[in-house]
Write a structure and sequence with these properties.
The protein is mainly β and 171 residues long. It has 1 helix and 14 strands. InterPro entries: Osmotin/thaumatin-like_sf (IPR037176), Thaumatin (IPR001938).
């Protein structure tokens, strides 16, 4: 009985550790049209109808992560194409999309995460990006002041480690 109780406690501790080491991203489509959000290196992609949400968990230690909205897509099963943000014709992206695309970029660390919006690869859809303990960023057009416009811009923001994030299309 003692071995069984120890096993259960160990399993509960491992589950808590795993859940505590992930950041949750809730992606919402406020547009009047369907958006196909994509996320790398975790998440893949999906179809998101107006008003819909998609949730992904990103493990701590994830660097150079991206979320973007693809538009004008047509898929047959897991393959197809998008007018903006296409990632090699795949529904579930494993590589970054083709410009133009508005990007939510992030690095999920231990005690601190970093995030930003980038239009370096062009602008294709309005986006808001925030974390539960940081500044909310909004980019409604290609000249938005909250976004990186060139690589040497200083627009990265810090957030408490493993926070909850919100990405909203058409804020």
């Amino acid at each position: 009985m003692a071995a069984s109780s120890s096993s259960i406690l160990l399993l509960l501790a491992a589950t808590f550790t795993l859940s505590a080491s992930a950041a949750t991203f809730t992606i919402k489509n406020n547009c009047g049209f369907t958006v196909w959000p994509a996320a790398t290196p975790v998440g893949g992609g999906t179809q998101l109808n107006p008003g819909g949400t998609w949730t992904i968990n990103v493990p701590a230690g994830t660097s150079s992560g991206r979320v973007w909205g693809r538009t004008g897509c047509s898929f047959n099963g897991n393959s197809g194409s998008c007018q903006t943000g296409d990632c090699g014709g795949a529904l579930a992206c494993t590589l970054s999309g083709k410009p133009p695309m508005t990007l939510a970029e992030f690095t999920i660390g231990g005690s601190q995460d970093f995030y930003d919006i980038s239009v370096i690869d062009g602008f294709n859809i309005g986006m808001a990006f925030s974390c539960s303990t940081g500044v909310g960023l909004v980019c409604r057009d290609s000249s938005c002041p909250d976004a990186y416009h060139q690589p040497n811009d200083m627009k990265t923001h810090a957030c408490g480690g493993n926070s909850n994030y919100q990405v909203t299309f058409c804020p």
